[in-house]
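seq:
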Amino acid sequence: MTPIFRFEGIYTPIITPYFEDGRPNLEALTETIEFLIASGVNGIITGGSTGENYAQTLAERVDLARFSYERIKGRVPLVVGTGAMLTQDSIALAEAARDLGADAILLASPPYAVPTDRENALNALAIDKAADLPVMLYNYPHRTGTMMGPEFLDRVGRSRNFCAIKESSGDINRVHLLARDYPHIQMGCGMDDQALEFFAWGAPFWVCGGSNFLPQEHIALYQACVVEGDFAKGRRIMSAMLPLMHVLEQGGKFIQTIKHGVSMTGIDAGAMRAPLKGLNKDDKRALEQVTRVLKSTIAGIKAEG
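struct:
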C-alpha cells in the first residue's frame, strides 16, 4: 500500500517560548520557526511534549498550532499533536488541525488509561475519523504506559491515513518488527541514540527535539545515512552526537536542556511552565561544552566531503 503522505527528513517538535509570567512569546516562536526553516528542516510539529503540551489548555494548543501554520505559510509540512488523556480532547484537537489546514496529525496513546490494543486502536480510529488527515503515530510506552502492539497496528491499518509511526520505545526489536512486518507504515526514529540503527533499517524520517537548536547537525546525520548511504560517515557523525544525547536524557531535564539550547542560538526560549524549572549553571555549562565540540567535529566531517 502506498502511503498517502511521505514523511521524509528531519521533523522538529518545536518548543514553546514563554515570558517569565507564563505567556507564550509569539515573537520568539516566530524566530524559532524561521530559524528551523532557514536551516533546512523538513517539517515542524506543534503540540508535542517538547512543546510542553501537558502544561497548556486545549485553546492554547489550538492557538499555537494556528499561529505556527500562519507563520510557516506552506514552506514545510505542519504536523499537529493530538495527544490528550480524554478522547474527546484529542478529537477536538484533530478537528482543529483539519480546519486550520495542517498537513498531518501526531497521534499518541492516551496516558494513564493503559488501554488494550483493541481499545487503543478504536480510540485512534475515532481521532482519525475526526481529522481525516495523514497520521503519524507516536509509540512512547515509557510516557503513556501503553505499547502500540501488533493487534493495534493491524486494526488501525484499516485506514490509509495511518502512514507513519514515530517509534520511541527504545526496544530495537520494535525496529525489526516495523521494518519487516509493517513496511506500509513509514518507520520514523523517535529514539535519538538509535538514529543510526533506524536509518540502517530504512527509516525515512527522524523526529528529534535536539534539532530545535542543532538542526544542521541532525540533518547531517540524515544526509549521510539516508541520502548518501554512507554509514561510515554516519557512524562518525553519530559518535559526535552521542554526548549531546547523554546530556539531553540525564536526570529528566530534556525540555529544559532543549530550551537552553535554543537560547544559545540567540532566540529567547524563556522559562518552562510548572512543574519544570530551568537548568542550573553546571547543567548549562555542560550543554554549552558538548554543543561546542559537537558542532566543530561535525563541521570538520562535512568539510572533508
